[in-house]
Amino acid sequence: MATQPSTVMFSLLLLAVIGPCAAFYLPGLAPVSFCEQGKETAECKSEIELFVNRLDSVESVLPYEYAAFDFCQNTGEKRPSENLGQVLFGERIEPSPYKFIFNKEVKCQLVCKKTYSSSNQESKSKLDFLKKSMLLNYQHHWIVDNMPVTWCYDVEDGQRFCNPGFPIGCYITQNGHPKDACVINSEFHEKNAYYIFNHVDIKMFYHVVENEGQGARLVAAKLEPKSFKQTHVDQPDCSGPPMEIKNAFGGDVTVPYTYSVTFHEEKKKK
């Protein structure tokens, strides 16, 4: 049977709508200029917002919204509008509690802490879901200024691979075999245990808009996930052994979430 013209037109229209959206998280937004705090104008702001998307895994067909996990949440802000292409691709973009000031470097900032008790069923269920997600290698997807925050790491043959996502954590099997991202750190060695990436080192790259006098534009955002147990949870220093969660834990366990951010000027626009 011949294809109806209306069907062809619909297919072309659908491709035109969703095609460009696959490459961008928030299509249609104009570039944003950033200035240092105290130098803001109507066209130039100092606050940099970080958005979070749904989490997914190559080992599971089920994606989950960020709010499904017991991570640090930002419930007071409205989610950004999503267009047809984003809806078709299943994007679920949410505001996050991670916010930065342009060109202000921060070291080991506490975002929130989560405590789980083996004697409380609701608390235990949340931790069990988190552990299962680490076992299945679920990945965060973060967005800054309409760009994915990428995790770059070395692979075989001296190559460097950049991933627009990073794992919640990883698992060491009962035989001591490190799964997935657990291979990146020799300190991840406890058998039948999970290691959660509860800290991120974020690097923001920018170039100065010289002709327009409008501050700077972000050109890239990269991060490195890390795991820290934190001796003093309320005053973290982001050093020491990794945050280990035993598969068969008892008592209470507290997971602090922290970040550090630095800014780096790029002389050439990317």
From TrEMBL:
InterPro entries: EMP70. Residues 1-23 form the signal peptide. It is a multi-pass membrane protein. The keyword Transmembrane helix applies. Coiled coil: none annotated. It is found in: Membrane. Keywords: Membrane, Signal, Transmembrane, Transmembrane helix. The keyword Isomerase does not apply. GO terms for cellular component: cytoplasm; membrane. Pfam families: EMP70 (PF02990). Belongs to the nonaspanin (TM9SF) (TC 9.A.2) family. This is Transmembrane 9 superfamily member. It comes from Xenopus tropicalis.
